[in-house]
Amino acid sequence: MNADPKQSCSVASEAEPTATMTPMPVWILGLMFTLLFLGAWYFDLYGGWFEAKVYAPYSSVADVQRFQPKKGGIADTLARGRKLYADNCAVCHMETGVGNPANGCPPLVDSEWVKSPSPTRMIMLISKGLAGPITVNGKVWNSGVMLAVGDSLPGDEKEKAEKIAAIATYVRFQFGKIEVETKPAQALTIRESIKDRTANFTEADLLKVEP
Amino acid sequence: MKSSSIVFLAAFIALSASWGGFVLAPQLQLGRADQTKTVPAEEKYPLARPGLAQQGAEVYRSLGCVYCHSQQVGQNGVKVEVVLLDAGTNADNTISALAKVNAQLGKPENFIGLPKKLTEVADIGAADSIVKAVTESGGKIEVNVIPTGADISRGWGKRRTVAQDFIYDSVVQPGTRRAGPDLANVGSRLADANWQLRHLYAPQAEIKGSTMPAYRFLFEKRKVGKVTSADALKLTGEFAPPAGFEIVPTDDARALVAYLLSLHAEAPLFESPVTPPPAPAASTNTTIVAVRAEIKNYTASELLSVEGTAK
Per-residue DSSP letters for A156-200? Predict the structure, then answer.
């Protein structure tokens, strides 16, 4: 405490700092524009305009769209038919189409009904069901009744026809090795001709129709 | 302070910009994501986890699995495979049509042993002209979109993971570190629940040299009663319990395995296109039919002949 208070004052004090406006250095301006340019360039390459459906390596929705598995072909119908078959038919005919002898459900694999040249009988059968026995590959199967699965599918008449056509396409392809797409219009026409029927078909009814 | 309002304004702008970027923008972008449909099969995706798997997600969280396992498959690119299925009735016609597109493709030896991979292109636009040439001359052709990347070649997934995969997770656990393999697709890769249980009990019993710690506390070691429990682990060698004891999974172990088996981030979605694998061929195996034929329904008299429980 013996320091001379005057000694500290002997050092010349610096000027008081003041806040004033100074022009921005040119290099900062240049850096900002460079960063902005790089940012915009990167965004253009990878941004995808913040679309939730665009991930790398795609750059826009249109780009993703081009890589979609093709729609409308037989592959698409088969995929839908497979799902519908699993939901509606596999309970009795099994996922693999081998049928269920314990319940009298006939197999679909290599069945002459599945291998029939046209899907007419199959569409009728799916639409209205079947009562009584049916002969498949020389063996009589009787499950009592096959329900009118087609009529009970959800949706209006057009949607039902689409779904039945998908099931028929899948069953014929998977179990009969017939690679022909059943068109919804075909199912619609056949369903129109049998729309007033309330009872199940019998084997004799189906045999009257051209295969 | 002279410029307090400017400082306040600058701080406000800086904080609100980061809030907008990290909270608001993702919310606007993905906040309304809902169940969608797969392409092209139109199955609903994702499905809510079953109850036990939902509990398992909590077990997964509490055990800190996320510190060593990620649940995000990366994808670097995509390749397009052009597979010729059928040359059509006039194969020469198809060959010359293909030769016009690409001299390499229009060679007769490409048409032997169909279906055959014709070529692999990086862009689907390049495949379009080939598809057009073949279909117009009566042939059949298939274009497969296959994601590529290190994770996919490791077999960890079929496509990249997208936000849609996580929409039903209340705590999203994509992970940040990979001391162990990625689990985004483990339910499809290792679908055997008993394998999963044995692996949790003794990882080294299933995978030699695994660095995963054993989760023995998820299992109960107890004396065998009259008969061995149906769900006792089938362990062999050094990991087997001493004679007269059995290892039985607790509820937590069962829930955790149910959760692991519910992880299937592989459905083909719009945002991550991938050609789904073809439907498995129908079984024409006659033994299945034969075995099924032996299954007979019980009759009422057969049931009555069994000793009744109600007296």
Answer: -HHHHHHHHHHHHHHHHHHHH----PPPHHHHHHHHHHTTT--SP
User: Would you say B269 and B162 are in contact if contact means Cβ atoms under 8 Å apart?
Assistant: yes
Cα B248 to Cα B232: distance, rounded to the nearest angstrom: 5
Side-chain half-sphere exposure of A14, counting CA atoms within 13 A: 2
Closest C-alpha to A104, from A114, A93, A113: A93
- Cβ of B279 and A96 within 8 Å? no
Cβ atoms of residues B169 and B57 within 8 Å: yes
- Token reading at B232: 């006792």
Report helix, strand and coil shares of chain B as percent, to nearest 5: 40, 15, 45
Mutate to test the interface with A, among B32, B130, B274, B275 (most CBs of A within 10 A): B275
- Does the beta-carbon distance from A110 to B76 stay under 8 Å? no
CA B227/CA B238 separation, integer angstroms: 23
Cα B201 to chain centroid, rounded: 23
pTM of the model: 0.68
Distances in Å between the Cα of A150 and the Cα atoms of A104, A130, A162 are: 20, 12, 10
Decide if pLDDT at B290 tops 80: no
Partner residue facing A102 (CB), from B162, B163, B295: B295
Instruction: Tell me what pLDDT residue B164 has.
Output: 93
Question: What is the ipTM metric for this complex?
Answer: 0.73
DSSP state of A6: H
CA–chain centroid gap for B8, Å, is 50
Tell me the Cα Rg of chain A: 37
What tens digit of pLDDT does each residue of B56-105 get?
A: 999 999 999 999 999 999 999 898 888 887 777 777 888 888 888 777 77
Angle between helices B91-101 and B124-136 (to 10 degrees): 150
Cα–Cα separations (whole angstroms), residue B263 to A139, A165, B39, B257:
44, 33, 19, 10
Strands (E), chain B: 36-37, 44-45, 77-86, 116-121, 140-148, 219-223, 245-249
Question: Helix (H, G, I), strand (E, B), or coil: what is residue B249?
Answer: strand
* Of B124, B160, B122, residue with least CA distance to B142: B124
Cα–Cα distance for residue pair B183/B263, rounded to 1 Å: 7
pLDDT of B288 above 70: no
| Mutual angle of helices A184-193 and A120-128, in 10-degree steps | 60
Secondary structure (H, E, C), A71-126 = CCCHHHHHHHHHHHHHHHCHHHHCCCCCCECCCCECCCCCCCCCCCCCCHHHHHHH
Single out the residue of A112, A128, A127 nearest to residue A178, CA to CA: A112
B217: exposed, middle or buried (Cβ count in 10 Å: 0-12, 13-18, 19+): exposed
B78 contacts on A by Cβ (under 8 Å): 57, 67
